[in-house]
Write a sequence for this structure.
């Protein structure tokens, strides 16, 4: 009897492993600081469908720390009735130091943009050159960069705290070894070996300090230098 042919299985038509649909963008809420009603409406229209909601403020005095705490980013104009130049940027930075800020303005001079970035703005856009995609991209990149920066700062602070703790422990060990050395006067060989270990321990502490960023020399005193008894 001739065996029946094995049926050929075609490609799977169901969804592949994982979500077949692209991940929806994270919904963000921004503070839009813009005194011109027409420009504010235009910006909101450009952000339509981008999963970015706007809380609109017309003047700088309307902005408070509590209001900024409820947004992910600030999109600000520089020509405001109650603020000129970079005053709005500096004020918002003072109220919310960790909030990413994007400047969207009509000032096209060559000085304001670089200065705004040095003062903490994540991006600087010109109204006349920016479309919806550019504004959305600038906002999302600003939020992502700021979150990464804060995470790195937190990690660096944690490492610094660990280093300070290690230095403190090494200092305590050094004091204990010195006490033991002083009590070993009747055993010169033991005292000399402890003195060598203390010297090595001090060298380790100095190496740790030399690789720690912004660690002042007096944060943790080194183990005291001792001499071997004669």
């Amino acid at each position: 009897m001739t065996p029946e042919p094995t049926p050929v299985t075609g490609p799977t038509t169901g969804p592949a492993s994982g979500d077949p649909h692209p991940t929806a963008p994270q919904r963000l809420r921004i503070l839009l600081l813009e005194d011109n009603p027409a420009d504010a409406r235009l910006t909101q229209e450009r952000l339509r469908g981008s999963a970015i909601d706007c809380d609109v403020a017309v003047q700088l005095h309307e902005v408070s720390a509590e209001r900024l705490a409820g947004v992910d980013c600030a999109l600000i104009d520089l020509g405001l009735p109650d603020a000129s130049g970079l005053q709005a940027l500096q004020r918002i930075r003072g109220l919310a130091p960790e909030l990413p800020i994007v400047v969207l303005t009509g000032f096209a001079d060559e000085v304001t943009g670089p200065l705004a970035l040095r003062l903490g703005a994540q991006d600087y856009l010109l109204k006349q050159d920016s479309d919806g995609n550019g504004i959305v991209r600038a906002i999302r990149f600003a939020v992502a960069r700021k979150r990464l920066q804060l995470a790195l700062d937190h990690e660096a602070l944690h490492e610094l705290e660990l280093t300070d703790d290690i230095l403190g422990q090494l200092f305590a060990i050094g004091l204990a070894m010195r006490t033991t050395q002083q009590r070993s006067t009747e055993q010169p060989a033991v005292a000399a070996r402890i003195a060598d270990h203390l010297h090595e321990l001090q060298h380790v502490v100095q190496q740790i300090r030399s690789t720690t960023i912004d660690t002042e020399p007096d944060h943790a005193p080194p183990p005291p230098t001792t001499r071997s008894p004669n």
Q: What stands out?
A: Residues 8-17, 213-221, 226-230 have pLDDT under 50 and may be disordered.
